[in-house]
Amino acid sequence: MSTATLKDVGKPHDKVKEPLNYLNATNTIKSWLFTVDHKRIAIMYLVAVSVAFLLGGLAAGMIRVELTVPKGQFLTNDAYNKVFTAHGVIMIFFFLIPAVPAVLGNFILPLMLGARDLAFPRLNLLSFYVYSAALVMGLAAIIGGGVDTGWTFYTPYSSVYSNSNVALTIMAAFVAGFSSIFTGLNFIVTIHKMRAPGMTWFRMPLFAWAMYATSVIIMLGTPVVAITLALVVVERTLGFGIFSPEIGGDPVLFQHLFWFYSHPAVYIMVLPAMGVINEVIAANSKKRIFGYEFVAFSTMAIAVFGFIVWGHHMFATSQSMYLGLVFSVLSFLVAVPSAVKIFNWATTMYKGSVELTSHMLYAFGFLGLFTIGGLTGLYLSSLATDIHLTATYFVVAHFHYVMVGGTAMGFLAGLHFWWPKMTGRMYNEVWGKVSAVLVFLGFNLTFLPQFVVGYLGMPRRYHFYPPEFQLWHVMSTGGAFVLGVGFLLPVVYLIHSLKHGEKAGNNPWRAVGLEWVTTSPPDTHNFHEVPVVTWEAYEYFQESHHGGDVGPSRFPFDDDAVHVSSDEEVHV
Amino acid sequence: MNELQLAPIAASEYAGEVDKLFWVMNALTVVFTIIVIALIAFLAARYRKGTNVDRSNPTTHNTLLEMTWTLPALVLGLGVFTWSSRLFADVYTPPKNAREVFVIGKQWMWHAQHSDGTRENNEIHVPVNNPVKLSMISQDVIHAFYVPEFRIQRHVEPGRYTTMWFTPTRVGKYRVYCNVYCGTQHSEMGGWVVVQSREDFEKWQAGGGGRPFYPGGISSPTGDLSLAQTGATLFRKYQCASCHADGPKASSKGASLVGLYKSLRQLADGSKVVADEGYIRSAILNPNDVRLANSTGSMPAYRGSLSESEVIALIAYIKEIGTGKPLEGGRPDSVAPAANTNSQQWRYMYGGEQYQ
User: Fold this and answer.
1) Residues B250 and B165 in one domain
2) Which residues does chain A have within 8 Å of residue B145's beta carbon, measured at their own beta carbons?
3) Considering the domain boundaries, does residue B1 fall inside one?
4) Closest approach of chain B CAs to the CA of A123, in angstroms?
5) Is the same domain home to B176 and B228?
6) pLDDT, tens digit, for every residue of A341-370?
7) Which residue from A363, A421, A533, B212 has the fewest beta carbons nearer than 10 Å?
8) pLDDT range class, residue B216, cuts 50, 70, 90
9) Rounded CA gap, B350 and A208, in Å?
10) Overall domain count for chain A
């Protein structure tokens, strides 16, 4: 395939002033609400998960302010318990799980594969509405009285003792699970059946591999937690003895079933972010990801092994010592592929041409924070240290390094990377860098002190705490404000860019990949001609040894002679 | 607090061992993190766009190189696993000579019963340098008994005994935290482990210890009852002996309890279980769950009519049946002040309010 042909792929058929794209093709509200275009659904998801993130962040802010003094500032015990539960429920079920797959995956995956849409466009729309219904249910439960069980819903507290909106919250999580399953099913079928001609499995970008692995976990794990949560509601409302020993149940059974999903759920949240990091680092290093096959296989290995380590959440329960030993060694083993990926990403830059864009800074932030998150996980896989540290602030710090340092940083990296493609506009790069740095610094200021106070013995979910821990909590709250500003900045400059941003060309980052050959924003049908793939993923060339820019590529760059989106260059 | 603390006081043998492991892991973490950050910083700076460096023949994979960072990571990880697991195996199984204290967790307090009959709320007194085994159960939701200075915690579950043990090595008062979220006052469900020198502990035991309030409404006109003596009194009160022999004179109706503890029992469903505390508890509360192979199944279930406190006393007695040893005596005539039986906590814990 010649270079010229690829450039035709993104070329509109007719000479028009403003080429039609998925955003301006139709303008009615109805055309948005009933759209089956994966790109529009992704944009609606972006708005919804952003709302969830800001609400969850508001709850986090309340927690941090409340904890600046040992006896609390303005909340009652019950109110505090409801606020930390709201923070966990909103962030996990309504932000971390859907963020990368439903927004970035939805938008980019079909473009990457050279497909015109996902396999089941209507199912995709249904997934969004099911998610929205779940979000409304969850917010109704939280605002209309609240729920105080913690996001883990441990029995028999949740099933018998709690006097809060447990059933409604659980139903919200249950319904949200269906939206994940719909998205996962859609991605699996799309990746199997809708790849462009020549796009073999090992020519797929690693983001697609990550989406595939994530979808497999979603399909296998979500039904288990859905049924488990439904059983809690059954026990709570009908009094069937399942988890409460007073009526013949077993409370630890709940933990086994819950973590059988909720540990793999960590990978549902973090694998997509790892997928994003592959794309961002490759594009900003102008290099193929180091050890592509290894990264692809380790992604799938994590998906499989993630299912056999759930017991490491239960070392301090009545679980037997031998079970503890098995889960511990498996947890050490599953950590290795993740650790190795970090080195693969770093060495991708070797002999590359590294550009320190805002999305690359976010990706660096991911690497640093995820390294710490992963390493501190070993303290919790290790039995002897875990029975001191479990359920303390050490754990809180650890999973925030993984979830925020991993998933949220990956999401922001991806959002900045693909924003020009999604909206056709460039955001202010300086503010992007400021935000990336603020998030990184604020995050560390917030959560590094929590490792220390955790080792000192500060339990999580504590409203009141001994005065000797106050110093660490005050530091943490100070960091949280920096972090909050870092997170709010993108909201401002990204929205600002929609009207005032410079128009983006098709390929502002000079990246390779099919999503960069179509217009920005893409046409409703993604590609005017179905591309035929004859090349490997991440096909960057380094022809000049010095000076460090990439040589000619089959992929059109914005500063090439041919601007396929600008009027004067459009030829039929 | 005068100086910046980075670890709690190490007040048990185990705590010192965990700290060693912790600092080695910290060292590995710091070294590994520095390597990653340095590698990223070096590569990003050296190969920054526009720098004049050699970019010929870029490598995109190198199995040997990948193995050189995978294998050491694996070996170090398994080394930490082995070290940690040996420590854990030690701290999982209590030594035979450990002093046993029963702990009952409930929303939102801790209750402890010593074998000499002493009872305490939200405090546990123990002598220094003597292993202590806690046998714990919850009356409601899941709690966890956590003492950071001992570097150990264990869940306290309803319906099942869990144990933890420690050898305190330092006299002092150490905070107990509930560390599984248990409702409104979770963060106030605290208490203290009071580690005393041998002399102070004996003084406390003889006089100032917690007052013996007996479960089940029984009383003792002469001095204090030990836990096993309390159990024996309850055994008579509930007329257990009309079916179960607790001495040489065998009763024909139920299984003899002589030498029951730690014996192997053949159940009706074909399985065999060791008669430990958990088994005895089930056999009293839900006898049909652990029905013996040759049983008529006529024993009534005492679930709901016995408190966890009574069950613990009964188990303490049943464990002694057939050992041939005289029951441990309670404290001599108490010199301790009478308890304030009007306090809400007393009524709640011993007055039966929690069962209404």
Assistant:
1) no
2) none
3) no
4) 39
5) no
6) 898 999 999 888 899 999 999 999 999 999
7) A533
8) low
9) 63
10) 1
Q: Which residues of B touch A324 (CB under 8 A)?
A: 88, 92
Residue span of the structural domain in which A151 resides: 3-12+28-569
CATH number of the CATH domain containing B123:
2.60.40.420
For residues A188 and A216, the answer to whether their CB atoms sit within 8 Å is yes
Size of interface A-B (CB pairs under 8 A): 288
CATH of residue A219's domain is 1.20.210.10
pLDDT of residue B1: 44
What is the three-class DSSP state of B17? helix
**Cα–Cα distance between A412 and B125 in angstroms, integer?**
53
pLDDT score of A379: 95
Q: Distance between CA atoms of A458 and B7, rounded to whole angstroms? A: 11
Contacting A residues, span 393-412, partner chain B, CB-CB under 8 Å = none
What is the Cα–Cα distance from A276 to A281, expressed in whole angstroms? 9
**B251, part of any domain:** yes
- B49 part of contact set with chain A, CB < 8 Å: yes
Asked whether residue B207 falls in the same domain as residue B221, the answer is: no
Do B100 and B186 fall into the same domain? Answer: yes
Q: Is the ipTM of this complex over 0.90?
A: no
Q: Do B278 and B186 fall into the same domain?
A: no
Q: Tell me the per-residue pLDDT of B92-138, one tens digit each, with 9 for 90 and over.
A: 989 999 999 999 999 889 999 888 878 888 889 999 999 999 999 99
Co-location of B130 and B235 in the same domain: no
Q: Could you say which of B185, B211, B237 is where a domain stops?
A: B211
Which of A160, A315, A462 has the highest number of chain B CBs within 10 A, making it the mutation to test binding with B? A462
Shortest CB distance from A378 goes to which of B25, B40, B184?
B25
**Arithmetic mean of pLDDT over chain A:** 90
Predicted local confidence at residue B253, as pLDDT? 77
**Touching check for A351 and chain B: CB below 8 Å?**
yes
In a domain, B341, yes or no: no
Contact A551, A543 (CB under 8 A): yes
Specify the pLDDT at position A567: 40
Range of the domain at B73: 7-43+64-211
Q: Is some CB atom of chain A closer than 8 A to the CB atom of B28?
A: yes
Task: Please indicate whether, in this complex, the C-beta atoms of B183 and A378 are within 8 angstroms of each other.
Answer: no
Average the pLDDT over B13-36 and give the result.
94
Q: At what angle do helices B63-92 and A358-381 cross, to 10 degrees?
A: 40
Any domain includes B343: no
Yes or no: say if A58 and A44 are a contact pair by the CB < 8 Å rule.
no
Whether pLDDT at A559 is above 70:
no
Q: How many domains does chain B divide into?
A: 2
In sequence order, the β-bridge partners of residue A113 are none
B37, B43, B175 member nearest A350 (Cβ): B43
One-character DSSP codes across A169-200: HHHHHHHHHHHHHHHHHHHHHHHHH-PPTT--
Q: Is A35 part of any domain?
A: yes
| Residues B121 and B227 both lie in one domain | no
